[in-house]
Amino acid sequence: MSALFPLTLQGVAVRRQGKRIIGPIDLVLNPQGPTIVIGPNGSGKTTLLRVMHGVERINAGSVSWAAQDRSKHAFVFQSPIVLRRSVAENLAYPLRLVRTPAAQIRETVAYWLDRIGLGSVQNSPATRLSGGERQKLAIARALVRKPDVLFLDEPCANLDGHATHEIETLLQEISAAGTQLVMATHDMGQARRLARDLVFVLDGKIHETGLASEKFAAPQTAALAAFLRGDIVR
Amino acid sequence: MVDIWDGFSAAFWLIASFDAELWEISLRSLRVTLTALVIASVIAIPLGTYLAVQRFRYRRFVISMINALMGLPPVVVGLIVYILLSRAGPFGVLNLLFTPTAMIIAQVVIITPVIASIAHQSMRELWAEYHDLLISLNTSKWQRIVTLMRDGRRNLLTAALAGFGRAIGEVGAIMIVGGNIDHVTRVLTTAIALETGKGDFALALGLGFVLIGLAIVVNLAIHTLSRTEREGQW
After folding, report:
1. Three-class SS of residue A12?
2. How far is CA A227 from CA A39, A206, B173, in A?
């Protein structure tokens, strides 16, 4: 369990151009395993994750961690952002930012290249990788500084089944190794496979939270029940 | 039409006979222009990148001014630099008027806004691509600027080459501040102007073709040295 938690959001609201995106949100997150944020498209999952990570400006409320240390978080975006550098250089980049010794960078990069199976293309431009490979690279790059918490925004959106399976396996491994995952998805199968805790977001508000096994078995609200059935929920 | 062929012929013989004066003024043209290019790039590239990543109160105004200065009339720049460097001017004591240094100063003033504006445009696009990642990785302002300049170096090269193109063909300002003095400040463009004035169109055209050839050779050399347009490069 990371010392960063609990994470407390009090009355958090985000507005853009006068339009409410999320909020008001009150949430205490003290997860014991992977936390999956679910909800329909446009419900505010991405914004909620960005608020938690501290890259989204809030218009009201407060976000507080038990221990405030942003260097202990990492974020993987829905569309993987790869630097216009080689695959190996992408992995080395976060370590160079914090002046990691060269030998340690080489060692860490070699480990992650092997772990994500991109050793054979380590000197190729990262922009030439496939969607699944890019996402694996983005996840590995987020992990090279050994964060306590990893936020993932629909990391498997637009990926095929094989790539999704590879990424889920990687996520399960890093979760088992102690990294706290907070992930947004609208793929219910993936949520069932990965989640220990569930946060259901609807219309920019937290609708339901709790143990995933309980929520999947007996949702408390009609909206979550409908969402889990695959109905269109507004 | 005859004049153009005469020009080709004159250019060929000037080059084939290793004409000493041609070499002298060509090398002076290159020295002045490349020196101005290096100085302007050192100022303009970080400035363009800074404007891409930093928000401040008068940013729009500064960008508009730089864009407007791209169209600075060279004769006006020449006149202002002339006044500043003339004996009665504030920098008269430096005795720089009618020297290659004065020509370099005028060229720097002319091409810095060109390079800064193009650099800003390309860095702005790269910043839009990298923004979320670099914010998420907690990078400092300086790290962001260095990262953009490194990963956008091919685009920055294009900006610098645009500045080179503007400088190598410049005549108005350097004629005023250089004086077109034989063996001292005469360069290809001022020599062309002189020969045209004397009515020796063939020689003027010949020098013109040499100038065009020089610009092409320098562009190709820079592209080759920086290994652009290679598969997998950015």
Report:
1. strand
2. 8, 14, 71
Kindly state the helix (H) or strand (E) to which residue B45 belongs, with its residue range: helix B20-53
* Residue B220 backbone dihedrals phi, psi, to 5 degrees: -65, -40
| pLDDT of A64 over the 70 cut | yes
Closest CB to B234: pick one of A70, A81, A84.
A84
**CATH number, domain B2-226:** 1.10.3720.10
Chain A residue at shortest CA distance from B129: A81
Complex ipTM over 0.85 = yes
Q: Which residues from B are below 8 Å from A74, CB to CB?
A: 136
Residue A94 corresponds to which tokens in the numbers above? 């976060």
What percent of chain B is predicted at pLDDT more than 70?
A: 95
- What are chain A's domains? 7-82+147-229 (3.40.50.300), 83-128 (no CATH)
Query: Which chain B residues are Cβ-neighbours of A128 within 8 angstroms?
Result: 232
CB B232 to CB A53 under 8 A? no
Choose the weakest-confidence range: A160-164, B133-137, B226-230: B226-230
Residue A210 has φ and ψ, to the nearest 5°, of 155, -170
Looking up tokens 């004086």 gives B179
Q: Note whether A71 contacts B138, CB cutoff 8 Å.
A: yes
Round the average pLDDT of chain B to a whole number and report it.
91
Closest chain A C-alpha to B128 CA, distance in angstroms: 11
Write out pLDDT tens, residues A9-48.
999 999 999 899 998 999 999 888 999 999 998 899 999 9
List chain B domain ranges: 2-226
